[in-house]
């Protein structure tokens, strides 16, 4: 019995598994097609009758610079108006008062349902409805009051308020109702609860879409060209009418819009990180943090090599 056990064959080890990667031929085909399409577009633009050499000459033209500044400040003012009025509308929409909630709903329905260009033109021609502006302490013709700057501010800001109200309402509703009940139990009024408890917690939900709305506002402000506001597109068009470089001026305007939106996209990125610090998910390192980490690693390697 022992002899047969001693002569039992040894266990054969299993063969090592060879992992064969799956070949994704579709990815290669898609990549080749995308590169081919990009190459065709590049060839088309290179053969187009566009004088690319004059674009740098007009990039910092005084007219273009003033138009970019007008675009920047009118979009900032309109966004401030939209955020302030949007908060009021969101509170009205969430109110238990049927009158205020209905008015807020109608406002949002109207301004979200009509084009921004139509709203700008309506404000620009508001003198047909109200020829004279009489506030008691101030009286003047509406044509004198409704300047292109004021028209753009009202048209863009009031339209933005309709979208911001929905963003703020979603942020307020994302906060647990227990927070409100606890605040009221501590003796806080509804306004104090909203300012000190609800809105600070809702900012994490409100900030990301608000940043997107402002970047969209920068581009939407180009519609103010229709009401004679001297913004970036208006200035580029005026220059193209004398230089006959129409498409070239549009490229100049595109470069400035890309520059402005990129700057505010970076700002939005860091603001979002600040308000997301209380989140449980791990935040990825910022580009600046990655640079600092790589520099620290390089310093450690240099120190270790010097000690050797």
TrEMBL record:
Keywords of this entry: Amino-acid transport, Cell membrane, Membrane, Transmembrane, Transmembrane helix, Transport
Top-level taxon: Bacteria
Q: Which InterPro entries match?
A: AA_ABC_transptr_permease_3TM, ArtM/GltK/GlnP/TcyL/YhdX-like, MetI-like, MetI-like_sf
Q: How does it sit in the membrane?
A: Multi-pass membrane protein
SUPFAM superfamilies in UniProt: MetI-like
- Coiled coil spans: none
Q: Which residues cross the membrane?
A: 28-48, 68-92, 250-271
Domain ABC transmembrane type-1, by residue range, is 68-268
Protein name according to UniProt:
Amino acid ABC transporter permease
| Species annotation | Streptomyces longisporus
